[in-house]
Amino acid sequence: MIEVKHLVKKYGEHLAVDDLSFTLEKGQILGFLGPNGAGKSTTMNILTGYISATEGTVSINGHDIFDEPEEAKKCIGYLPELPPLYQDMTVREYLNFVADIKFVKRNEKRKMIDRIMRMTKITDVSERLIKQLSKGYKQRVGLAQAIVGFPEVIILDEPTVGLDPMQIIEIRDLIKELSKSHTIILSSHILSEVSAICDKIMIINKGRLVVSDSPDNLSQHIGGSKGLHLEVKGETETVKKALEGIEGITKLEFEKNSKGGIVKLSAYSTEESDIREAVFYALSDARCPIYDMHSTKMSLESIFLELTQDNKNSNTTKNSNRLFRKNKQKNEEVYAAGANNQESEHKEEN
Ligand SMILES: Nc1ncnc2c1ncn2[C@@H]1O[C@H](COP(=O)(O)OP(=O)(O)OP(=O)(O)O)[C@@H](O)[C@H]1O
């Protein structure tokens, strides 16, 4: 559905996007993450044909965005960081205008706009001037214009910026609903949002792809260590002494808010080891009953910070480099296979 190969964007001498390659299948939601200035908006602007690339190719639904811009753009709905709204139009006038630009058939237009206004919950303000709307409503109108024509691919740059918590939940639900029939790319600074709704997460830093995987795999493989949350009755020192000798434990983190004789802590171990039995017997020997024991994963926040802060020696960075090399090799094999297929198709044609 979306295939990006070796994308490079230079602004003068400044390298904003540096050899970015990725693919996205139909119906997937891709979360695009990166610190400020990482190159997210630049990439999205190239994908939508808004700006050109210095090198590389982008194919949307089989159409090259540079060679067949009209065909490719027909497949895309875009909500940029600053929604392109005409402030002096009413909401309905504006969506009518967008539908005309997107060549929506006259006899389908009214029904489609009414449906999209219901989906984005802006029917109540359909006859209001856009300049009189609150920021949250303007954002919804921006989302509505991206959906007009129901394009196969919807690209959303920070779609929940400026919305209140209730509206954020509604927009997230809408994005999930849309993903049943559309492919979606969204950028966001809200990491919990990305891990809650995306099938795939791509983290970029300084224009380069750092890692790309499912939220679960990121936590399990990139985190590189497993956590066990424990609530234990006893003295902190006794619990610490009991657990310190267990083979496989790499770190113990005691929470500060332990009270009522209950000690709360996380015990981290290497990915290969299972420390649960040893923890049970050690605490039993120390006569410290376990009130709660469950597995925890490294949070996306921790992964994001470690991967984007040039911490070359951290386990997270080492694991991501390993996974990155593996994925890169896999992608190159897929591209090579694709190129071979195209070559043989070409030969057959000739
Ligand atoms: N038109 C431009 N001319 C020159 N440099 C630019 C231009 N647009 C972006 N840049 C630079 O390219 C880099 C990537 O910018 P981009 O806006 O794509 O980052 P971003 O990841 O979207 O950041 P943010 O999260 O802050 O929106 C930054 O260093 C930025 O200063």
From TrEMBL:
Residue stretches making up the ABC transporter domain: 2-231
Recorded family membership: Belongs to the ABC transporter superfamily.
Protein name: ABC transporter ATP-binding protein
Claim: ATP-binding is one of the keywords in the record: yes
The organism of origin for this protein: Anaerocolumna chitinilytica
InterPro entries with a match to the protein in the record: AAA+_ATPase, ABC_transporter-like_ATP-bd, ABC_transporter_ATP-binding, P-loop_NTPase
Listed Pfam families: ABC_tran
Alphabetical list of PROSITE patterns matching this protein: ABC_TRANSPORTER_2
Record bears the keyword Nucleotide-binding: yes
Start-end of Low complexity biased regions: 311-321
Domain of life, per lineage: Bacteria
Molecular function as annotated in GO: ATP binding; ATP hydrolysis activity
SMART domains noted in UniProt: AAA (SM00382)
Region (Disordered), start-end ranges: 311-350
Keywords: ATP-binding, Nucleotide-binding, Transport
